[in-house]
Amino acid sequence: MKTAIVTDSTAYIPKEMRENLHIHMIPLSVIFGEEVYAEEQDISAAQFYEEMKVKTDLPTTSQPPVGKFVELFESLAKEYDHIISIHLSSGISGTYQGAVTAGTMVEGIEVHTFDTEISAIIQGFYVLEAAEMANEGKEPQEIMSRLQEMKKSSRAYFMVDDLTNLQKGGRLSGAQAFVGSLLQVKPILHFVDKVIVPFEKIRTRKKAMKRLFELFDEDASKGAPMVASIIHANRPEEAEELLAEMSEKYPHVEFMISHFGPVVGTHLGEGAMGLGWYMK
Description:
This is EDD domain protein, DegV family. GO terms for molecular function: lipid binding. By secondary structure, this protein is α/β, with parallel strands linked by helices. It has two domains: 3-28 and 63-151, Rossmann fold (3-Layer(aba) Sandwich); 155-279, Hypothetical Protein Tm841, Chain: A,domain 3, CATH 3.30.1180.10. It contains eleven helices and 13 strands. A six-stranded mixed sheet has the order 10-9-8-13-11-12, with helices on both faces. Helix 3 (66-76) crosses helix 4 and helix 5 packs antiparallel against helix 6 (140-151).
């Protein structure tokens, strides 16, 4: 029995890692005016943040067409018996539902869909775990059970550096953004019931980052093996510094660095930072 693992681009798993683990990816898109760019395929994160500096209007984002899922699932049916399709939260995108719909349209293969209820590399953690299990020949139901188990210890918090994108995207009122900018408010966000909501509002970036570390320490200080990622929106040097600092302090944690790519970066804006983790 062979099981294929599918995800979307917002998991931000490096291409080389995807290829090594045989993970199949369908991109979401960012749209600048009339120009549509498939995330990662047509535009990199670095290119996206450069574009954002010169554009006055916020781009929009779009989920993959159902037909793209059908096309991929049909091609996988030639070689696999099952597909586990793992996607960003259904509360912020219709991508998961697109995979569900496509699964009912394809014959000759069983499609299992999984809503991570989150996004970015934390979504990617589920994908990587599933891929390793699939490569070991584990049954689809065993993989799905493990993914549900991971939800119990999965955590993620994001610090937004600039409120402009949240305001432009309709996720924050103009007045709130203006007052927040004047007060140097750096909101910490997290996912609750599949949507992004404020966790705390904190003055200054330094204090907000300190708070992210405190939240991480609540779990990391228990000493249990963990996997964690520092996530940045075009702040690679800062991420590297944090990695060195945290790796030394928490030797029992398996750390990595990831980024907010174009689709998630459209909403969070440049300079956003995040921490995500789960218990091994």
